[in-house]
Amino acid sequence: MVKKNCCVFISGTGTNLKALIHSSRNYNFPINIKLVISNRRNSTGLMYAKKYSIPYTVLDTKNNLHEKRIFNEFKEKKIDLICLAGYMKILSKNFINNFNGNIINIHPSLLPKYKGTNTFKRIMKNQEKITGCTVHFVNDKLDSGKVILNKTFEINSKDNEISLKRKTQVCEYQAYSRAIVKLYMY
Question: Which of 15, 72, 98, 103 could disulfide-link to 138, CB 3.0 to 4.6 Å?
Fold first, then answer.
């Protein structure tokens, strides 16, 4: 099997990155993570890149010069797929168009419901009974790309924003890898 070369974008703790790294170590998993990019120097998720000897870059996203730098790194590493895993910056239209169809994201709700941020607060406020996560293609509209996979779970009466976030993250760790397999193994 020829694996796709992947870059994972993170901003925070990198727990989805960690799950993807573990999946990618499986011989039959269709991607190799060749690069990790963060927009935050203090992102704790970078420790996973270091631990597993994956090259990483921290971007200064205050101007668009960082995109040229990324494009050069992608060429050098022959990146086929970009996985956004808790990356809290909006990608430019130009960036998305350059990698059209090759950028996927994981979102902590069942899209199209609860696009954007403050997801768990809004889910609790609306007293939803079922939630989950969505892996989707990225387009130039926030959280609006074609859905690849949804994973759901029931919300119980004892749940709050914190427990909801924990349950959603557990779903995400499984869903992201399943979505990648769905894309490249069939």
Answer: 103
Which distant-in-sequence residues (6+ apart) come within 8 Å of 67 by Cβ?
A: 92, 94, 95
pLDDT tens for each residue of 57-73 = 998 777 667 788 888 89
Lowest mean pLDDT among 24-28, 76-80, 92-96, 147-151: 92-96
pTM: 0.94
Domains contained in the chain, number: 1
Domain extent at residue 103: 4-185
CATH number at residue 131: 3.40.50.170
Q: Which residue among the candidates 22, 66, 107, 136 is catalytic per the annotation?
A: 107
Q: Cα angle at 40 between 91 and 6, to 5 degrees?
A: 55
Residue 90 one-letter amino acid: I
